[in-house]
Amino acid sequence: MEKKRKILILCPLWDSEEYIGQEVQSVVDQTYQDWELLFANDNANQATLDIVNSFMEKDPRIRMMGNDTGRHGSHGNYRNMIINADTKNDSFDYYVYMDNDDVWKPDKLEVYVNKAEEVRREKGENTPICFTCNMEVIDQHGNLVDPDFASSYAYEIRHPMDAFLTHRVFGCNMFVDRSIYFALREVMKDPDFDESISFDNFSYQMGVALEADLSFIPKVLMSYRRHLTNTTKEAVYKITPAYFLKSLAGVKQVIHNNAFIARDSIDSINYILKLDISLKMRQQLLEVRDGLEKGGIPAMKMWQKYHINCGNTLRTVENWLSLCLGLERKYMDRNKYPTL
After folding, report:
1. Which residues contact 2 (CB under 8 A, 6 or more apart)?
2. pLDDT at 246
3. Is the full-model pTM beyond 0.85?
């Protein structure tokens, strides 16, 4: 008889009374039912807490922990949950991150688990897992805005090393296994861990470093809600010729953005190199770090060797020019440019 896999869903909680009920109900209605949902209360208002408490009263699988760590926001709360949560002796097989305002399709967890089991039958039981899936985009009222977000935004990672040159993964559609979760815990428990590192990208980069199966599931498994109170409301998801021309006009901002990604990835690589990873992966990460730090010829060699693709041609050209021409090197000095 096939082992029943248990899933822990992690969700920071703040003021979201408009959407949180629909989000939690979409979890309760999953066709795969062997899950627990853990909230981290980050000063959510009473209206939000009342909604969540009503679900907790009816379903013991839904729990809540406080946040007295001083860490706030999405990245701080995920770090808090990963290193401090009481997860019942860590008996979970898989871990899923959840936003406050999205809606899951009923078979989201079932599709993920079935794919993971398929991979492990083919590659071995201990194969690390780091999956992402397609999403549709809805607005604040639940109206469909984009039925195929993966195609519009081109966020499917084609080569593992792409993850260190462009930030285009989403924590809300990520599914990881124990090996990645515990590697994140090992790194994040360092009191000096830099919480400015993007948690979404760092989780995926950890999957790359552990040589996980990085399968992308093309089926739409969730509705990703975009509205004016999103923490990523300023993000640009569709790169068009008009956007590219605008970017050229504001070239300094483009360089700033690429420098931010490079600095973030260098920090991520430095943390990952402290872990027990394969010699092959260690060498690859050192090559990528060298290219990011030095730009110029080292960057060109790295780019060519790993066939870097930043999602579409325009974005790739933009990043290539910035890095290989060394345009962002001056901004790599954190003493001169502590923020970007």
Report:
1. 117
2. 52
3. yes
